[in-house]
Amino acid sequence: xxxxxxxxxxxxxxxxxxxxxxxxxxxxxxxxxxxxxxxxxxxxxxxxxxxxxxxxxxxxxxxxxxxx
Length: 68
Prior knowledge:
By secondary structure, the chain is of the alpha+beta class. 31% of the residues lie in helices and 26% in strands. The protein has one domain (7-62): Alpha-Beta Plaits, CATH 3.30.70. A hairpin with a 4-residue loop joins strand 2 (34-40) and strand 3.
């Protein structure tokens, strides 16, 4: 992770379990430029370091979840 990497946090209301967490982490981690993905199941938040916002949103959608 670089010091100047952009960090985005997404509200994803459909996250409810570890399966959701792993699905999102797996899909988002394939996006070019993403240096890290943290999914907080309880808060229903996905925090992504690096990557293009549009591509990250598309990856979350591809995993089967909607960004609020």
